[in-house]
Amino acid sequence: MTASPYAALLRQQAYIDGRWLDGAETFTVTNPATGACIAQVPDLGAADTQAAIAAAEAALPAWRALPAKQRSAVLRRWYDLILANADGLAALMTAEQGKPLAEAKGEVAYGASFVEWFAEEAKRVYGDTIPAPSGDKRLLTIKQPIGVVAAITPWNFPVAMITRKVAPALAAGCTVVLKPSDETPLCALALTALAEQAGLPAGVLNVITSRQAAAVGQVLTDSPVVRKLTFTGSTGVGKRLMAQCAGTVKKLSLELGGNAPFIVFDDADLDLAIQGILLAKFRNAGQTCICANRLLVQEGILPEFARRLADAMAAFNVADGASGNSQIGPLINAAAVSKVQSLVDDALAAGAQCQFRHPQLPEAGHFSAPTLLTGVTPQMRIAKEEIFGPVASILAFKDEAEAIALANDTQSGLAAYLYTRDLGRLFRVAEALEYGMVGINDSAISNEVGPFGGVKESGLGREGSKYGIDEFLEVKYLCLGGL
């Protein structure tokens, strides 16, 4: 029997204080494309979470005292090991999350880039000298690690959402308690095994696998030892965590839901716009927080745009992500499929038209048909809620002012996209959009050097870039007198 390509990376234990641990109870991790069991991992609870916090607290003094160059060296070794095991990590990701193998390989490289970036940023945590108001004083600022960090990560990017949080925390000198999604804990455990191999000391990174999300979250938010919470997930859960953190006044980074508009003006390069929407809408089967949720297309070009998009969608291969030519994999679970279908049914009942629906789906697994809807209006649920599936919905607009009004008609403010050849319009619209990130004639906006984050109810803080490490640091002001 041939061993799986990820066998060497597969771990079925949690990781606390440098030890791999079993639990009294376990839960099953399944493949969303086939329903097959991949692994059984511990279902840890409140007591185990307290133990992980205690381990992180005990490890903190030595880790934060370590010179930045030495922390950087550990992170660099971790980066090298991630790249050396990229094929196995990608295969594991496809098995537990479902995305096509080519996308999974891209995510591994993307996730590794944050480890490399913050390995370098660890050595660039600079303070300031400030001109004093009198000659007998000297004023300085220094930056210090905030302390123990709790990180709660989602299932849709099970490698990159971890490295984007954990790498800057470790680079800053913090220790971490990580709670990955119960849908995709295996990538987290594999990354942790590689971090251990890279020389990360015991207690610096601890991983809680659990289906008891509320109980684990309550311990993390209540603990006075945990000084920072970083979370990626739904807006509703983010709001609850924010409220729970109020009692201990924790620092927060929240990357929450999106409702991204994808605006196509009549002067746009349509070939470029179609290429952009195929990536922004259908990557990971539409299960991304910066996914194009609403396609706002100027009236004059709407029929041509819809025809071209439908033709492109017809060429999709919807299949198990592990097959060599899959372009659209499964959704994460049956509930996700039901939600997407309910949004489509609601839109059709309210007057939208189905321009295209992919005719071929695998018989097994949690697959959703790539679908194109026209005649969508702002009042429909599909224009208000995050779809998180391979459904493109087109809304028409008359002019620039209406496009901006439609785009901003949401409490979300994560990412937006616009396509135009008019330089003046480009700046006017980009500046008017109430979003933390705007892709202009480009939908591949996420990388390690750019600040990732939103405004309004899409969250707080920024990840990646030179700003990302500041989320895990406190500024201390030193006033020297009597000089």
UniProtKB/TrEMBL annotation:
Statement: the UniProt record of this protein carries the keyword Oxidoreductase: yes
Q: Which UniProt keywords apply?
A: Oxidoreductase
Identify which residues the record assigns to the active site: E255
Q: Where is the Aldehyde dehydrogenase domain?
A: 20-477
Q: Which InterPro entries has this protein been placed in?
A: Ald_DH/histidinol_DH, Ald_DH_C, Ald_DH_CS_CYS, Ald_DH_CS_GLU, Ald_DH_N, Aldehyde_DH_dom, Aldehyde_DH_Superfamily, Succ_semiAld_DH
One Pfam match, given by its short name, reads Aldedh
Does Glycosyltransferase appear among the keywords?
no
Of which family is this protein a member? Belongs to the aldehyde dehydrogenase family.
**Name this protein carries in UniProt:** NAD-dependent succinate-semialdehyde dehydrogenase
